[in-house]
Amino acid sequence: MNKNKKALSILMRTRMRPPSPSSSTNRINHMQFPPLDGGGGVSSSSQDGSASFHTDFERVRESMHSAISMNKTEILDAALDDFSEGYFGLHNEDRRTLLLTLAREYDLNRIQVRELMKQYLGLELPSGDKAAENVHEEEGSFSAFYRIERNLRHSLKPMYEVLFERLNTHPGGLRFLSIMRADILSFLAYHFWTPKRNPKHMSFQGGKCSVVEALDSYLKEKLITWLSPANLQLHHITWDDSASLLEKIVAYEAVHPISNLLDLKRRLGVGCRCFGYLHPAIPGEPLIFIEVALMKTVAQTIQEVLWDDPPTPESEATCALFYSISSTQPGLSGINLGKFLIKRVIDVVRRDMPGISTFATLSPIPGYMQWLLSKLASVERSGSTFSENLLKPEEESALLEAAEEFATGKNGMEVMRNLLSSTSYEWTKSEKLSLVLKTPLMRLCARYLLQEKKRGKALDSVGNFHLQNGAMIGRMNWMADRSEKGLRQSAGVMVNYIYKVDHIEENAQSYFSKGEIQASDEVRAYLEPQEDLQEEMKD
Amino acid sequence: MNKNKKALSILMRTRMRPPSPSSSTNRINHMQFPPLDGGGGVSSSSQDGSASFHTDFERVRESMHSAISMNKTEILDAALDDFSEGYFGLHNEDRRTLLLTLAREYDLNRIQVRELMKQYLGLELPSGDKAAENVHEEEGSFSAFYRIERNLRHSLKPMYEVLFERLNTHPGGLRFLSIMRADILSFLAYHFWTPKRNPKHMSFQGGKCSVVEALDSYLKEKLITWLSPANLQLHHITWDDSASLLEKIVAYEAVHPISNLLDLKRRLGVGCRCFGYLHPAIPGEPLIFIEVALMKTVAQTIQEVLWDDPPTPESEATCALFYSISSTQPGLSGINLGKFLIKRVIDVVRRDMPGISTFATLSPIPGYMQWLLSKLASVERSGSTFSENLLKPEEESALLEAAEEFATGKNGMEVMRNLLSSTSYEWTKSEKLSLVLKTPLMRLCARYLLQEKKRGKALDSVGNFHLQNGAMIGRMNWMADRSEKGLRQSAGVMVNYIYKVDHIEENAQSYFSKGEIQASDEVRAYLEPQEDLQEEMKD
């Protein structure tokens, strides 16, 4: 008995490995999917355990054709099975060729579309006023409009829609479509693609591929419809769930990797919650899941959340802290299920735990260092005396003094860049240096989060995700994540986004329409001197 | 204790009433929905218990406008609630006016559609051959095509799509949409409609209303997508289900009404199965359900199925008899969920009970008498000596002799019509008369089932339903349903449709493409003399 207990205890502490060596490429961070590298396709197939053999391309192509063009539904099921099995057996390059074939050869019938358009343009547009006077004439002309419009709607659907629709209602088909879309995204991210077979047809290299982009945008729209929140079930994930489901949580937790079974058990235990969205067609595998810690105050470091014992008694909790949200499906990139999940979870927690009034995140800032280092480098390159100094004079002199023994550089910015880009993170080991860097790093982080944008949206992907969901920036936390990843991404800074229940929609709306970012006074305070500086720089 | 048992026994035998007096108008027979009369709308609303007050039309119209045009999702939820509550409070006539407003004022932007079409027609269609040679040029011109096609797809969506989409993801919205569609169908069936408010806009009377037809066809397509079998759950309905769910089975059982709790319990007990399709957004209310009896042989009368005690021991059963399939949603008319339900149930029964090899129905023939009586009347009216005699000479003389004391008429057909159209069904009480009528009634029934068509499909709605699902006509059964309804609809004849697992798809396909009806030799045998007769008539 005692022996068993000991064995269990060892098992629980054993470092966990994701179910397949490739699954790390499937990890998705905070709803933002990095362009899949060439391995994207393989990782999907190896998950299905069928990458070991190579299927004949032509056979798969034929089964795809059958799956699109057949009528008899029983044989159709077999054709769909054939096609998906064959697809999983294809090498990456063959998958790409097949997707390109699908996009090109099962496109619209443009001759028919043009014919209908000509008919339509030949109709006289009925005017509202006249219509009221002679209803029967109006009726006749409207009915011609509706007829051609309906026909046009149908003929504007590419032929590959049939394949998507059929797969969606076929067992396992929705999951297959999600993998297919992951492959399409990997195709689109794979810029320089050299042809293998049919070189005549496959001869483009690099650049855009709008025929595959059209395939992607069509499939994405379909997936958005099929995965509408009405079709998803919120599931409270607990230690009583099946091992096969929990294994997926371990494999796909992208933000703070789960180290062993004890760690997992703790994240599902007292003081914690984990919720996932399940689709009936993909049972036992949440499409996305969120981890929540119930706390007395909004946590400032990930240490408090994950490792500080013991957890807060639930009756004393006033805050639900979302510390991780991970998607399991690279193929659902750009389909914001997280937004609905967060709202549903807020509703459930408010209903079940009236003592909780604060809903906040403790989030990474994945793009901060990348932005800052390239900003420092570009200022350096320009070399002009008029170029912006990212450091204030007093920050620069303090830094130059403290950094003497760690890094060199012709000015403060170069020293800063050298310190921050060193992968040994020496600066974090010197208290003096950390202190000197804190001021500019926090100030520049506020600038990055509040002012740096791309097409009117926050440059930081996690920031953009929470802001579009209606959160505000509540607080920045120094040395909140000392892990290698945390230091590399954001010099250890983390941020609390706050979901104020009464302002979620208003914030989401003003962010969406005007790009306005809501932030607390505390965060704004970092910026004011910076704004003055920018004013000066403009002169 | 004994007293309680007695009370329970009385309760179990108490005749059951549908949950609301109006629900009888909601009963749908075998997937074929009769045109809803003026009461259709009211019945939906009274189910929601809000028909008692009359909502102000303008207020509902405004909430509809908000629900379509608003952006903020939180207030949007309130607007959708407002709109659906308001809608339920409207009188039938106001609902119709509102639906017409929705169809007319939230239609396409046709100016924009025409503009895009003109742009599109201005593009040069890239040829496949040229494309292969100059990929980059092809790329540019294709991307213009895709862009305009995508824009056209969007602008060909009527504005009311937003309302449908928003309601679909709103709690209770899918159910509301189903009620709204029932109202649209009732609108379209309500030919002579006199205007009440805004007479200038509402002045058409009778005839087609293609703007509302377009609304209906659009909503129907949306519902088909949302209710795809992938989103439906098969539920085995048992006596352990909630009273509120079982109440719905009682209310909507359309084929063989459930008389009391004992009857219901028997239909869910040993030797029986009941399966329903549930959608996650409409919990506790199967959209459609099917009742199955497990039997030693294919039943010939409904008596054997419903009332003969005791049921077959399940281990001895070789046949699964589908004796009733009912839809609970008039608004899902034309969306064939029954087809998928039957296939799923066949799969489940085959898996769980390998002893069962025959899958058959015992089905009513709802249109037989209506067809026969109008056929008899039209032959009579034409009065020509060359017109078809539906009776063979020997049938006619036997009938004239046997019918002497029951009915008069100048010939056999007139006597037959008088006998069959009498609502006292005297003919069933005379053994002699029944015997004499049996031969022509069975023969003509085979003709009705196998040869009478409308637009290439079987005229009988139940027949068309099973044939399009891939069944064949197996056997006709004399005096199989002696209920008033059975005699009125089909002179008591019922039919066994057989689902042969290996031929389902083939049959469905040949029925769909060529209108071919598969039937057993036994059924065909009724027809051969009739075909000879038809040959003679043509000369």
TrEMBL record, chains A, B:
<dbReference type="InterPro" id="IPR038917">
    <property type="entry name" value="Malonyl_CoA_deC"/>
</dbReference>
<dbReference type="GO" id="GO:2001294">
    <property type="term" value="P:malonyl-CoA catabolic process"/>
</dbReference>
<dbReference type="GO" id="GO:0006633">
    <property type="term" value="P:fatty acid biosynthetic process"/>
</dbReference>
<dbReference type="GO" id="GO:0005782">
    <property type="term" value="C:peroxisomal matrix"/>
</dbReference>
<dbReference type="GO" id="GO:0006085">
    <property type="term" value="P:acetyl-CoA biosynthetic process"/>
</dbReference>
<dbReference type="Pfam" id="PF17408">
    <property type="entry name" value="MCD_N"/>
</dbReference>
<dbReference type="InterPro" id="IPR042303">
    <property type="entry name" value="Malonyl_CoA_deC_C_sf"/>
</dbReference>
<dbReference type="InterPro" id="IPR007956">
    <property type="entry name" value="Malonyl_CoA_deC_C"/>
</dbReference>
<protein>
    <submittedName>
        <fullName>Malonyl-CoA decarboxylase, mitochondrial</fullName>
    </submittedName>
</protein>
<dbReference type="GO" id="GO:0050080">
    <property type="term" value="F:malonyl-CoA decarboxylase activity"/>
</dbReference>
<feature type="domain" description="Malonyl-CoA decarboxylase N-terminal">
    <location>
        <begin position="130"/>
        <end position="192"/>
    </location>
</feature>
<dbReference type="Pfam" id="PF05292">
    <property type="entry name" value="MCD"/>
</dbReference>
<feature type="domain" description="Malonyl-CoA decarboxylase C-terminal">
    <location>
        <begin position="231"/>
        <end position="500"/>
    </location>
</feature>
<feature type="compositionally biased region" description="Low complexity">
    <location>
        <begin position="43"/>
        <end position="52"/>
    </location>
</feature>
<feature type="region of interest" description="Disordered">
    <location>
        <begin position="1"/>
        <end position="53"/>
    </location>
</feature>
<dbReference type="GO" id="GO:0005759">
    <property type="term" value="C:mitochondrial matrix"/>
</dbReference>
<dbReference type="InterPro" id="IPR038351">
    <property type="entry name" value="MCD_N_sf"/>
</dbReference>
<dbReference type="InterPro" id="IPR035372">
    <property type="entry name" value="MCD_N"/>
</dbReference>
